[in-house]
């Protein structure tokens, strides 16, 4: 995201540098005993907060009209607060009013520009929320829920995964998923019966629902396979969540006749749901093969 705004950052650096050079060439440095450190603290804190606003804008928003208003409004505030802070260290001649004007005028203009940008941001967010609610209602109206586990099924998973991929790409946020497979579930059904298999799936889905976050989307991907979508979650955090699930799911395999589980965490970097699911299947197969090879060695 920062690369999209590199020219804005260069302009900001040049603007602040020009303000510093203008202040140094116009005035003269004050003696140390003339510094008002309370004013320095207050004005310095204000400047840091405004710089923080700039950082948040360029790190979280793509280029666009609303971003321009937000950025340049904040930049005017930073410029005004920067010159205001320099005034505590540099004394200007009384007959030169330029620095006083540069300190005072950008701040109210920046406030107006920033406010206009915030209004645009509000409208933009409302449009996004309406779109997401519409898609969610469409999916819920079709009752795409697995009747046994009460989790969402394959069709819902594909639709939501595609939506999350698009949001991930537009907002430059992290997206991960957990893939869970019941090892040799068909053999368990043959040994213990379909009723035992259904009861096991019910306990498994309930445990997944209780252990994962409300923002995560848990779906029954296939008869013996589950996928949890983890929005705004980087791969290291997803791996920690996978390890936590392994510990919690161990209680389901407390009996020797119950199947083992394989859990794999991976980052979603594909551009469509189909390729992301294919990558998940491949990663899970590799994890199961590695586990089998390790068991054979031991």
Automatic annotation (TrEMBL):
It is an enzyme of class 2 (transferase). Coiled coil: none annotated. Keywords: Membrane, Signal, Transmembrane, Transmembrane helix. Its EC number is 2.7.7.65. Residues 173-298 form the GGDEF domain. InterPro entries: Diguanylate_Cyclase (IPR050469), GGDEF_dom (IPR000160). NCBIfam families: GGDEF (TIGR00254). PANTHER family: DIGUANYLATE CYCLASE DGCM-RELATED, REGULATORY COMPONENTS OF SENSORY TRANSDUCTION SYSTEM. This is diguanylate cyclase. It comes from Arsukibacterium indicum.
